[in-house]
Amino acid sequence: MNKPLNIKLVALALLALILAFAVKQIEWKVLERQATRDGAVRAIADQYAREQQLAGPLLWVKCSEPRSLIETDDKGATRQRNVIQNCSRAIRPSLLSGQGNLDVAERYRGIYKARVYLAGLKLHAELPVFQAKPGQRIEEAQLIFGVSDPRGLKRIKLTRADGQTLNAKPGVPGGPFEQGFHVPLDPTQLAQGLELNVELEIAGSGRLDWAPLAENNDFSLRSAWPHPSFAGLFLPETREITAAGFSARWRVNDFATGGDRMLAGKNNGWLNTSLGVSLIDPVDAYTQTDRAVRYGFLFVLLTLGGFFLFELLKAKPVHPLQYLLIGFAVVLFFLLLLALSEHTGFALAYLIAAGACVLMIGGYGRSLLGSWPGAASLGAGYSLLYFGLYQLLASEDYALLMGAWLIFGLLGLTMYLTRRLDWGRVGQAQPKPAMDQGE
Q1: Same domain for 292 and 401?
Q2: Within a domain: residue 351?
Q3: Of the residues 36, 203, 282, 295, which has the fewest C-beta atoms closer than 10 A?
Q4: pLDDT single digits (tens) 89-126
Protein backbone atom coordinates (compact mmCIF):
# COMPACT_ATOMS: atom_id res chain seq x y z
CA MET A 1 0.00 0.00 0.00
CA ASN A 2 1.44 3.36 -1.09
CA LYS A 3 0.78 5.55 1.97
CA PRO A 4 2.54 8.72 0.69
CA LEU A 5 0.39 8.73 -2.45
CA ASN A 6 -2.80 8.12 -0.45
CA ILE A 7 -1.96 10.93 1.96
CA LYS A 8 -1.29 13.27 -0.97
CA LEU A 9 -4.61 12.37 -2.61
CA VAL A 10 -6.54 12.93 0.63
CA ALA A 11 -4.84 16.32 1.07
CA LEU A 12 -5.71 17.30 -2.51
CA ALA A 13 -9.34 16.23 -1.97
CA LEU A 14 -9.58 18.47 1.12
CA LEU A 15 -8.02 21.36 -0.78
CA ALA A 16 -10.51 20.83 -3.62
CA LEU A 17 -13.41 21.07 -1.13
CA ILE A 18 -12.01 24.31 0.31
CA LEU A 19 -11.60 25.82 -3.15
CA ALA A 20 -15.06 24.60 -4.21
CA PHE A 21 -16.52 26.49 -1.24
CA ALA A 22 -14.61 29.60 -2.34
CA VAL A 23 -16.02 29.25 -5.87
CA LYS A 24 -19.53 28.91 -4.40
CA GLN A 25 -19.04 32.15 -2.48
CA ILE A 26 -18.20 33.94 -5.72
CA GLU A 27 -21.29 32.45 -7.38
CA TRP A 28 -23.41 33.91 -4.57
CA LYS A 29 -21.66 37.23 -5.03
CA VAL A 30 -22.59 37.19 -8.74
CA LEU A 31 -26.24 36.62 -7.82
CA GLU A 32 -26.08 39.39 -5.21
CA ARG A 33 -24.65 41.91 -7.67
CA GLN A 34 -27.18 40.85 -10.29
CA ALA A 35 -30.01 41.41 -7.79
CA THR A 36 -28.59 44.86 -7.03
CA ARG A 37 -28.52 45.64 -10.76
CA ASP A 38 -32.11 44.42 -11.18
CA GLY A 39 -33.18 46.64 -8.28
CA ALA A 40 -31.55 49.65 -9.93
CA VAL A 41 -33.29 48.85 -13.22
CA ARG A 42 -36.66 48.60 -11.44
CA ALA A 43 -36.02 51.93 -9.71
CA ILE A 44 -35.35 53.57 -13.08
CA ALA A 45 -38.53 52.01 -14.51
CA ASP A 46 -40.55 53.21 -11.51
CA GLN A 47 -39.50 56.77 -12.25
CA TYR A 48 -39.62 56.58 -16.06
CA ALA A 49 -42.24 54.03 -17.13
CA ARG A 50 -42.51 50.27 -16.75
CA GLU A 51 -43.03 47.61 -19.38
CA GLN A 52 -45.97 48.58 -21.56
CA GLN A 53 -48.90 46.67 -22.96
CA LEU A 54 -51.14 48.55 -25.37
CA ALA A 55 -54.65 47.27 -26.09
CA GLY A 56 -57.50 48.78 -28.02
CA PRO A 57 -59.49 50.50 -29.17
CA LEU A 58 -62.62 48.78 -27.97
CA LEU A 59 -66.12 50.22 -28.21
CA TRP A 60 -67.58 50.14 -24.70
CA VAL A 61 -71.36 50.51 -24.64
CA LYS A 62 -73.09 50.99 -21.31
CA CYS A 63 -76.70 49.97 -21.59
CA SER A 64 -79.61 48.61 -19.58
CA GLU A 65 -82.81 46.74 -20.38
CA PRO A 66 -85.95 45.84 -18.45
CA ARG A 67 -86.54 42.18 -17.62
CA SER A 68 -89.41 40.31 -16.02
CA LEU A 69 -88.57 37.63 -13.48
CA ILE A 70 -90.99 34.93 -12.33
CA GLU A 71 -90.43 33.99 -8.68
CA THR A 72 -91.92 31.11 -6.74
CA ASP A 73 -92.31 31.25 -2.95
CA ASP A 74 -92.27 28.35 -0.46
CA LYS A 75 -96.01 27.72 -0.89
CA GLY A 76 -95.76 27.37 -4.67
CA ALA A 77 -97.28 30.75 -5.45
CA THR A 78 -95.72 32.66 -8.32
CA ARG A 79 -95.30 36.34 -8.86
CA GLN A 80 -93.74 38.55 -11.50
CA ARG A 81 -91.03 41.12 -10.69
CA ASN A 82 -89.66 43.73 -13.09
CA VAL A 83 -85.91 44.49 -12.88
CA ILE A 84 -83.42 46.58 -14.80
CA GLN A 85 -80.59 44.39 -16.09
CA ASN A 86 -77.15 45.57 -17.13
CA CYS A 87 -76.40 44.75 -20.79
CA SER A 88 -73.12 46.65 -21.13
CA ARG A 89 -70.61 45.09 -23.49
CA ALA A 90 -67.27 45.61 -25.24
CA ILE A 91 -67.26 45.48 -29.03
CA ARG A 92 -64.01 44.59 -30.78
CA PRO A 93 -62.88 46.18 -34.06
CA SER A 94 -63.32 44.25 -37.25
CA LEU A 95 -59.92 45.49 -38.45
CA LEU A 96 -56.91 46.88 -36.60
CA SER A 97 -53.65 47.74 -38.31
CA GLY A 98 -50.63 49.59 -36.98
CA GLN A 99 -47.07 50.65 -37.61
CA GLY A 100 -44.57 51.58 -34.94
CA ASN A 101 -41.05 52.82 -34.47
CA LEU A 102 -39.08 52.15 -31.29
CA ASP A 103 -36.37 54.62 -30.23
CA VAL A 104 -34.19 52.97 -27.57
CA ALA A 105 -32.05 54.86 -25.06
CA GLU A 106 -30.22 54.09 -21.82
CA ARG A 107 -30.63 55.51 -18.33
CA TYR A 108 -28.05 55.06 -15.56
CA ARG A 109 -28.25 54.59 -11.80
CA GLY A 110 -24.65 54.53 -10.58
CA ILE A 111 -22.79 51.87 -12.61
CA TYR A 112 -26.05 50.19 -13.62
CA LYS A 113 -28.06 50.96 -16.73
CA ALA A 114 -31.58 50.28 -17.96
CA ARG A 115 -32.91 50.30 -21.49
CA VAL A 116 -35.89 52.59 -22.04
CA TYR A 117 -37.77 53.46 -25.22
CA LEU A 118 -40.11 55.95 -26.81
CA ALA A 119 -42.52 54.28 -29.23
CA GLY A 120 -44.23 56.22 -32.00
CA LEU A 121 -47.34 54.30 -33.10
CA LYS A 122 -49.91 54.86 -35.85
CA LEU A 123 -53.09 52.76 -35.68
CA HIS A 124 -56.10 52.42 -37.95
CA ALA A 125 -59.24 50.76 -36.57
CA GLU A 126 -62.58 49.93 -38.13
CA LEU A 127 -65.42 49.30 -35.68
CA PRO A 128 -68.64 47.62 -36.77
CA VAL A 129 -72.13 49.07 -36.72
CA PHE A 130 -73.90 48.68 -33.38
CA GLN A 131 -77.64 48.79 -32.87
CA ALA A 132 -79.37 48.22 -29.57
CA LYS A 133 -81.95 45.47 -29.34
CA PRO A 134 -85.59 46.41 -28.76
CA GLY A 135 -86.06 47.55 -25.20
CA GLN A 136 -82.38 48.24 -24.55
CA ARG A 137 -81.37 51.74 -23.52
CA ILE A 138 -77.88 53.00 -24.36
CA GLU A 139 -76.65 55.22 -21.55
CA GLU A 140 -73.05 55.92 -22.61
CA ALA A 141 -70.59 54.97 -25.33
CA GLN A 142 -66.81 55.32 -25.27
CA LEU A 143 -63.78 54.18 -27.15
CA ILE A 144 -61.45 52.69 -24.55
CA PHE A 145 -57.71 52.00 -24.75
CA GLY A 146 -55.74 49.91 -22.28
CA VAL A 147 -52.26 51.09 -21.27
CA SER A 148 -50.49 49.15 -18.53
CA ASP A 149 -48.55 52.22 -17.29
CA PRO A 150 -50.32 55.46 -18.33
CA ARG A 151 -47.38 57.53 -17.05
CA GLY A 152 -45.67 56.69 -20.34
CA LEU A 153 -48.31 58.41 -22.51
CA LYS A 154 -46.64 61.43 -24.14
CA ARG A 155 -48.96 62.31 -27.01
CA ILE A 156 -52.42 61.18 -28.16
CA LYS A 157 -54.11 62.23 -31.38
CA LEU A 158 -57.38 60.63 -32.56
CA THR A 159 -59.28 61.50 -35.73
CA ARG A 160 -62.26 59.98 -37.50
CA ALA A 161 -62.15 59.07 -41.18
CA ASP A 162 -63.87 62.38 -42.01
CA GLY A 163 -61.06 64.31 -40.27
CA GLN A 164 -62.98 65.14 -37.11
CA THR A 165 -60.70 65.26 -34.07
CA LEU A 166 -61.74 63.32 -30.98
CA ASN A 167 -60.77 64.32 -27.44
CA ALA A 168 -59.17 61.70 -25.23
CA LYS A 169 -59.70 61.67 -21.47
CA PRO A 170 -57.74 59.83 -18.78
CA GLY A 171 -59.02 56.69 -17.15
CA VAL A 172 -61.22 53.82 -18.28
CA PRO A 173 -64.85 54.11 -17.05
CA GLY A 174 -65.69 50.50 -17.90
CA GLY A 175 -64.65 47.42 -19.78
CA PRO A 176 -61.84 44.89 -19.38
CA PHE A 177 -58.98 47.38 -18.95
CA GLU A 178 -57.73 48.57 -15.59
CA GLN A 179 -55.77 51.60 -16.81
CA GLY A 180 -55.65 53.68 -19.96
CA PHE A 181 -57.71 56.43 -21.57
CA HIS A 182 -61.10 56.80 -23.23
CA VAL A 183 -62.91 58.90 -25.83
CA PRO A 184 -66.61 59.76 -25.21
CA LEU A 185 -68.87 59.14 -28.22
CA ASP A 186 -72.36 60.21 -29.18
CA PRO A 187 -74.52 57.04 -28.82
CA THR A 188 -76.65 58.11 -31.78
CA GLN A 189 -73.65 57.71 -34.11
CA LEU A 190 -73.03 54.04 -33.31
CA ALA A 191 -75.41 52.89 -36.04
CA GLN A 192 -73.06 54.35 -38.68
CA GLY A 193 -69.94 52.43 -37.75
CA LEU A 194 -66.62 54.14 -37.06
CA GLU A 195 -63.21 54.39 -38.72
CA LEU A 196 -60.52 55.73 -36.45
CA ASN A 197 -56.92 56.87 -36.90
CA VAL A 198 -54.73 57.04 -33.80
CA GLU A 199 -51.26 58.49 -33.27
CA LEU A 200 -49.54 57.69 -29.99
CA GLU A 201 -46.21 58.36 -28.38
CA ILE A 202 -45.67 56.09 -25.41
CA ALA A 203 -42.60 55.61 -23.23
CA GLY A 204 -41.65 52.44 -21.44
CA SER A 205 -38.77 50.20 -20.44
CA GLY A 206 -37.66 46.70 -21.31
CA ARG A 207 -40.67 45.44 -23.26
CA LEU A 208 -43.50 46.62 -25.51
CA ASP A 209 -46.61 44.46 -25.95
CA TRP A 210 -49.61 44.85 -28.20
CA ALA A 211 -52.91 42.98 -27.75
CA PRO A 212 -54.47 41.86 -31.09
CA LEU A 213 -58.08 42.54 -30.10
CA ALA A 214 -59.63 42.90 -33.56
CA GLU A 215 -61.06 40.19 -35.78
CA ASN A 216 -58.13 40.84 -38.12
CA ASN A 217 -54.87 42.38 -36.88
CA ASP A 218 -51.84 43.60 -38.83
CA PHE A 219 -48.99 45.21 -36.88
CA SER A 220 -45.47 46.22 -37.95
CA LEU A 221 -42.63 47.44 -35.76
CA ARG A 222 -39.11 48.62 -36.49
CA SER A 223 -36.23 49.85 -34.35
CA ALA A 224 -32.51 50.55 -34.44
CA TRP A 225 -32.02 48.12 -31.51
CA PRO A 226 -30.16 45.08 -32.93
CA HIS A 227 -31.03 42.54 -30.19
CA PRO A 228 -34.81 41.96 -30.04
CA SER A 229 -36.41 39.03 -28.26
CA PHE A 230 -39.92 38.50 -29.60
CA ALA A 231 -42.37 37.92 -26.75
CA GLY A 232 -45.98 36.91 -26.28
CA LEU A 233 -47.96 34.10 -27.91
CA PHE A 234 -47.19 34.98 -31.52
CA LEU A 235 -43.90 35.14 -33.37
CA PRO A 236 -43.64 37.62 -36.25
CA GLU A 237 -44.77 36.39 -39.64
CA THR A 238 -41.78 38.14 -41.20
CA ARG A 239 -38.75 39.67 -39.53
CA GLU A 240 -35.35 41.07 -40.41
CA ILE A 241 -32.58 41.52 -37.84
CA THR A 242 -29.29 43.21 -38.73
CA ALA A 243 -26.58 45.16 -36.95
CA ALA A 244 -28.54 48.31 -37.88
CA GLY A 245 -31.73 47.18 -36.12
CA PHE A 246 -34.80 45.03 -36.71
CA SER A 247 -38.18 45.08 -38.39
CA ALA A 248 -41.04 42.67 -37.83
CA ARG A 249 -44.64 42.14 -38.92
CA TRP A 250 -47.43 40.19 -37.24
CA ARG A 251 -50.77 39.14 -38.75
CA VAL A 252 -53.22 37.56 -36.31
CA ASN A 253 -56.95 36.84 -36.60
CA ASP A 254 -59.83 35.60 -34.45
CA PHE A 255 -59.06 31.95 -35.18
CA ALA A 256 -55.71 32.35 -33.41
CA THR A 257 -56.80 34.57 -30.51
CA GLY A 258 -60.12 32.92 -29.65
CA GLY A 259 -62.26 36.00 -30.28
CA ASP A 260 -64.10 37.51 -27.32
CA ARG A 261 -62.59 34.95 -24.93
CA MET A 262 -59.23 36.73 -25.03
CA LEU A 263 -60.73 39.65 -23.10
CA ALA A 264 -61.25 37.40 -20.06
CA GLY A 265 -57.70 36.04 -19.84
CA LYS A 266 -55.57 38.25 -17.59
CA ASN A 267 -52.43 37.92 -15.50
CA ASN A 268 -51.49 40.75 -13.12
CA GLY A 269 -53.65 43.15 -15.16
CA TRP A 270 -52.12 42.15 -18.53
CA LEU A 271 -54.06 40.42 -21.26
CA ASN A 272 -52.52 36.98 -21.78
CA THR A 273 -53.05 37.01 -25.54
CA SER A 274 -50.47 39.46 -26.81
CA LEU A 275 -47.43 39.89 -29.01
CA GLY A 276 -44.43 42.14 -28.71
CA VAL A 277 -40.71 42.51 -28.23
CA SER A 278 -38.24 42.66 -25.34
CA LEU A 279 -35.02 44.64 -25.52
CA ILE A 280 -32.42 42.17 -24.29
CA ASP A 281 -28.68 42.49 -23.80
CA PRO A 282 -26.97 39.42 -25.34
CA VAL A 283 -23.67 40.20 -23.60
CA ASP A 284 -25.08 40.72 -20.11
CA ALA A 285 -22.01 40.67 -17.86
CA TYR A 286 -23.71 38.97 -14.91
CA THR A 287 -25.22 36.20 -17.01
CA GLN A 288 -21.91 35.42 -18.69
CA THR A 289 -19.96 35.66 -15.43
CA ASP A 290 -22.43 33.28 -13.80
CA ARG A 291 -21.93 30.83 -16.66
CA ALA A 292 -18.15 31.13 -16.25
CA VAL A 293 -18.34 30.49 -12.49
CA ARG A 294 -20.29 27.30 -13.16
CA TYR A 295 -17.09 25.97 -14.72
CA GLY A 296 -15.07 27.17 -11.70
CA PHE A 297 -14.83 23.83 -9.89
CA LEU A 298 -13.76 22.15 -13.12
CA PHE A 299 -10.98 24.73 -13.44
CA VAL A 300 -9.90 24.06 -9.85
CA LEU A 301 -9.73 20.32 -10.49
CA LEU A 302 -7.79 20.81 -13.71
CA THR A 303 -5.33 23.11 -11.94
CA LEU A 304 -4.74 20.76 -9.02
CA GLY A 305 -4.56 17.80 -11.36
CA GLY A 306 -2.08 19.58 -13.62
CA PHE A 307 0.33 20.36 -10.81
CA PHE A 308 -0.11 16.88 -9.37
CA LEU A 309 0.81 15.46 -12.76
CA PHE A 310 3.89 17.71 -12.81
CA GLU A 311 4.83 16.44 -9.37
CA LEU A 312 4.57 12.83 -10.55
CA LEU A 313 6.49 13.28 -13.77
CA LYS A 314 9.27 15.48 -12.39
CA ALA A 315 9.51 13.69 -9.05
CA LYS A 316 9.64 17.11 -7.42
CA PRO A 317 7.34 17.50 -4.41
CA VAL A 318 4.80 20.31 -4.26
CA HIS A 319 3.67 21.35 -0.79
CA PRO A 320 -0.11 21.38 -0.08
CA LEU A 321 0.16 25.09 0.76
CA GLN A 322 1.54 25.69 -2.74
CA TYR A 323 -1.44 23.81 -4.19
CA LEU A 324 -3.75 26.02 -2.11
CA LEU A 325 -2.12 29.26 -3.28
CA ILE A 326 -2.33 28.22 -6.93
CA GLY A 327 -5.95 27.15 -6.46
CA PHE A 328 -6.87 30.50 -4.93
CA ALA A 329 -5.26 32.24 -7.89
CA VAL A 330 -7.75 30.38 -10.11
CA VAL A 331 -10.65 31.32 -7.81
CA LEU A 332 -9.61 34.97 -7.84
CA PHE A 333 -9.90 34.97 -11.64
CA PHE A 334 -13.69 34.71 -11.31
CA LEU A 335 -13.85 37.48 -8.70
CA LEU A 336 -11.74 39.74 -10.93
CA LEU A 337 -13.97 38.87 -13.89
CA LEU A 338 -17.08 39.91 -11.94
CA ALA A 339 -15.59 43.16 -10.66
CA LEU A 340 -14.10 44.22 -14.01
CA SER A 341 -17.17 43.29 -16.09
CA GLU A 342 -19.26 45.84 -14.16
CA HIS A 343 -17.10 48.62 -15.59
CA THR A 344 -15.91 47.27 -18.96
CA GLY A 345 -17.26 44.94 -21.60
CA PHE A 346 -17.22 41.24 -20.71
CA ALA A 347 -14.63 40.37 -23.35
CA LEU A 348 -12.17 43.00 -22.10
CA ALA A 349 -12.78 42.04 -18.47
CA TYR A 350 -12.13 38.39 -19.34
CA LEU A 351 -8.88 39.28 -21.14
CA ILE A 352 -7.56 41.37 -18.23
CA ALA A 353 -8.54 38.85 -15.52
CA ALA A 354 -7.20 35.86 -17.45
CA GLY A 355 -3.96 37.69 -18.30
CA ALA A 356 -3.39 38.65 -14.66
CA CYS A 357 -3.96 35.10 -13.43
CA VAL A 358 -1.77 33.53 -16.12
CA LEU A 359 1.09 35.90 -15.18
CA MET A 360 0.63 35.12 -11.49
CA ILE A 361 0.59 31.33 -11.98
CA GLY A 362 3.44 31.44 -14.51
CA GLY A 363 5.58 33.62 -12.24
CA TYR A 364 4.88 31.43 -9.23
CA GLY A 365 5.61 28.35 -11.32
CA ARG A 366 9.13 29.70 -11.84
CA SER A 367 10.00 28.67 -8.28
CA LEU A 368 8.58 25.18 -8.87
CA LEU A 369 10.12 24.52 -12.27
CA GLY A 370 13.40 26.27 -11.67
CA SER A 371 13.57 27.95 -15.08
CA TRP A 372 11.83 30.73 -16.98
CA PRO A 373 11.29 28.60 -20.13
CA GLY A 374 9.39 26.09 -18.00
CA ALA A 375 7.36 28.86 -16.39
CA ALA A 376 6.57 30.23 -19.87
CA SER A 377 5.34 26.79 -20.94
CA LEU A 378 3.16 26.64 -17.82
CA GLY A 379 1.71 30.07 -18.60
CA ALA A 380 1.05 29.07 -22.20
CA GLY A 381 -0.82 25.98 -21.03
CA TYR A 382 -3.07 28.02 -18.75
CA SER A 383 -3.59 30.58 -21.50
CA LEU A 384 -4.97 27.79 -23.68
CA LEU A 385 -7.17 26.66 -20.81
CA TYR A 386 -8.67 30.15 -20.37
CA PHE A 387 -9.07 30.43 -24.14
CA GLY A 388 -11.01 27.16 -24.11
CA LEU A 389 -13.29 28.45 -21.35
CA TYR A 390 -14.02 31.62 -23.33
CA GLN A 391 -14.96 29.53 -26.34
CA LEU A 392 -17.35 27.55 -24.15
CA LEU A 393 -18.98 30.79 -22.97
CA ALA A 394 -19.19 32.23 -26.49
CA SER A 395 -20.63 29.05 -28.03
CA GLU A 396 -23.66 28.49 -25.83
CA ASP A 397 -25.33 26.05 -28.23
CA TYR A 398 -22.19 23.87 -28.44
CA ALA A 399 -20.88 24.36 -24.90
CA LEU A 400 -21.66 20.81 -23.77
CA LEU A 401 -20.10 19.27 -26.87
CA MET A 402 -16.97 21.40 -26.64
CA GLY A 403 -16.65 20.84 -22.90
CA ALA A 404 -16.97 17.08 -23.27
CA TRP A 405 -14.25 16.96 -25.92
CA LEU A 406 -12.00 19.25 -23.84
CA ILE A 407 -12.21 16.96 -20.80
CA PHE A 408 -11.80 13.89 -23.01
CA GLY A 409 -8.65 15.37 -24.56
CA LEU A 410 -7.13 16.31 -21.18
CA LEU A 411 -7.85 12.86 -19.81
CA GLY A 412 -6.25 11.26 -22.85
CA LEU A 413 -3.16 13.49 -22.46
CA THR A 414 -2.89 12.54 -18.78
CA MET A 415 -3.15 8.84 -19.58
CA TYR A 416 -0.48 9.17 -22.24
CA LEU A 417 1.97 11.04 -20.00
CA THR A 418 1.55 8.58 -17.11
CA ARG A 419 1.48 5.39 -19.17
CA ARG A 420 4.86 4.22 -17.86
CA LEU A 421 4.52 5.50 -14.34
CA ASP A 422 4.89 2.97 -11.53
CA TRP A 423 1.98 4.00 -9.30
CA GLY A 424 3.07 1.59 -6.58
CA ARG A 425 6.30 3.51 -6.01
CA VAL A 426 5.02 7.08 -6.49
CA GLY A 427 6.00 9.28 -3.57
CA GLN A 428 8.22 6.68 -1.91
CA ALA A 429 11.81 7.46 -1.02
CA GLN A 430 14.22 6.18 -3.62
CA PRO A 431 17.02 3.82 -2.36
CA LYS A 432 20.42 5.36 -2.23
CA PRO A 433 22.99 3.93 -4.64
CA ALA A 434 25.52 1.49 -3.14
CA MET A 435 28.88 3.00 -2.05
CA ASP A 436 31.92 2.06 -4.14
CA GLN A 437 34.35 -0.19 -2.22
CA GLY A 438 37.25 1.99 -3.27
CA GLU A 439 35.85 5.09 -1.63
Answers
A1: yes
A2: yes
A3: 282
A4: 888 899 999 999 999 998 888 888 888 999 999 999 99
